[in-house]
Automatic annotation (TrEMBL), chains A, B:
Keywords: DNA-binding, Metal-binding, Repressor, Transcription, Transcription regulation, Zinc. This is Fur family zinc uptake transcriptional regulator. One of its GO terms (molecular function) is transcription cis-regulatory region binding. It comes from the Bacteria. The keyword Metal-binding applies. It comes from Roseibium hamelinense. Zn(2+) binds at residues 91, 94, 131, 134. Belongs to the Fur family.
DNA sequence: CCTATAACGTAACACTATAACATTTCGGAG
DNA sequence: CTCCGAAATGTTATAGTGTTACGTTATAGG
């Protein structure tokens, strides 16, 4: 592993291609949209995309948007270290996604989990609505 | 249809069947699981299920779980009136879902929306983990 | 080199959801 | 009662999303 490369050092070819497609996109992409984008790069089957996505999500470079069945590149700096649970505000007009850290909401949900003795593993928070840009325009 | 069914009065036949399937189930059901449950009642195509589900979700009797692509009957009393956004704790062990009102979390997310001028339309909050019952057993 | 592991390629399949179009049901206007 | 429009329904086909299965290839460590 090279010393201080701020690029993703350990991505394989397919993972790099998928991650590139996501970072190059304005908004989230479905797995099949990614597949179409990467046909010229040799992608032929959805599994190639899903396998890369699985790894990228596991690493934390990509998030899955459950309410869209789509994926988006993490908007955090590469080396922000511990990437806590993120929340997403999805504009239903322009399709853009704003990722943010819902600290207070998370604390409240963790408190609920403690009280109910629910062993929390993963939290999904997705907001749907219209972004400021689309409201004013 | 019998006289004084204490079921919701304004449901159509298909809506009633689908709602009955969901209330009779231990946990959430996918649309196709509902379809299979209702084959003996004349259901033949997914659209029959999806149409009923659309209406039931619109009415507020049923919730869609985005992270499961499944549906669950609302656990609130039928006439609880304004049904605010609900949150769901999904046990990955037994599959049961606990619906609750995440008031504090919602307030925090609404505050974020105000600050970002994001016109919030719908909020999805889904917790994954292991319920108390499955942890102790 | 040898081997274990991860990544990759390909085809087939399973699951989730909607489009399109015809038909039926039902309540209100005339 | 009859007519009409809206809502609900029935049916077929198709689109979109995700996984299983199996075989091959690249990679790193001993
Ligand atoms: Zn992120
Ligand atoms: Zn927008
Ligand atoms: Zn509810
Ligand atoms: Zn459980």
């Amino acid at each position: 592993m090279t010393a201080h490369s701020h690029a993703k050092p350990d991505l394989t070819k397919n993972q790099g291609l998928v991650f590139g497609a996501l970072t190059g996109a304005e908004g989230p992409l479905t797995a099949y949209a990614i597949l179409d984008l990467l046909r010229d790069d040799g992608f032929r089957a959805p599994l190639q995309v899903y396998r890369a996505l699985d790894k990228l999500v596991e690493i934390g470079l990509v998030h899955r948007l459950e309410s869209l069945n789509a994926f988006v590149a993490c908007s955090h700096p590469v080396d922000c270290g511990e990437h806590k649970t993120a929340a997403f505000a999805i504009c239903e007009d322009c399709g853009k996604v704003d990722e943010f850290a819902p600290d207070a909401a998370l604390q409240s949900l963790q408190a609920w989990s403690r009280q109910e003795k629910f062993a929390l593993a993963k939290t999904t928070i997705e907001l749907r609505g219209t972004c400021a840009n689309c409201t004013t325009s």
